[in-house]
Amino acid sequence: MSLTPLLEHTLELVADRIGDPGPRVFERLFLEAPDLLALFSNDASGSVRGEMFLRALECLQDAAGAGRFATGLVAAEHLSHQVYGVTTAQFERFFEIIVDLFRDTLGADWTPELEAIWQLALSRLRVGAAAR
Ligand code: HEM
Which of 19, 56, 62, 105 could form a disulfide with 70 if both were Cys (CB 3.0 to 4.6 A apart)? Predict the structure, then answer.
């Protein structure tokens, strides 16, 4: 299987098993770092969180595949998030939490090939080397 179908395959299996993964990603984030909850106090509807999750997911998919926009977009978001008070480690962790959730959701269906692709995406989105 080539790259794009593999990524889509992950997302389809995840959606079949847990529906929208977005809320679970934020559950995990706030369990790890409860102080971040306060940053979303103006997001009662959850629309900012939903948009942020979708953008992050698009960046992961782009980074694993065509690499058309993710590096630039993530560099810009990294800077704007520093203004919100999000550290570089917290920013990068968001991508990892998404991949962790996918791995846990797929369980035995998570293959070494999938691990390699999603790790490649994570490595391409690391902004910390220059910023730390
Ligand atoms: C733990 C990590 C992160 C935290 C705590 C965080 C926090 C926030 C907060 C508080 C906002 C709302 C800002 C405002 O409008 O006042 C926001 C918006 C946004 N974040 Fe993040 N962020 C994180 C990681 C990321 C990552 C990795 C991306 C990757 C693309 C991202 C993309 C966005 C986007 C696109 C928005 C705008 C959404 C909208 O207003 O419609 N964030 N983030």
Answer: 62
**Type of residue numbered 58:** E
The 8-class DSSP code of residue 29 comes to: H
Contacts of the segment 93-97: beta carbons below 8 A, 24+ positions apart: 93/29, 93/32, 93/33, 94/25, 94/29, 94/56, 95/56, 95/59, 95/60, 95/121, 95/122, 95/125, 96/122, 97/25, 97/28, 97/29, 97/32
pLDDT band at 6, cuts 50/70/90? confident
Please report the atom of ligand 1 found closest to the CA of residue 43: 12
Kindly report the number of other CB atoms within 10 A of residue 5's CB atom.
10
Q: What average pLDDT does the structure give for the chain?
A: 93
Q: What number does the ligand 1 atom closest to the CA of 84 have?
A: 10
Nearest CA to ligand 1 atom 2: 91
How far does residue 128's CA lie from ligand 1's centre (Å)?
17
Query: Which ligand 1 atom lies nearest to the CA of residue 125?
Result: 27
| Domain spans, the chain | 3-32+46-131
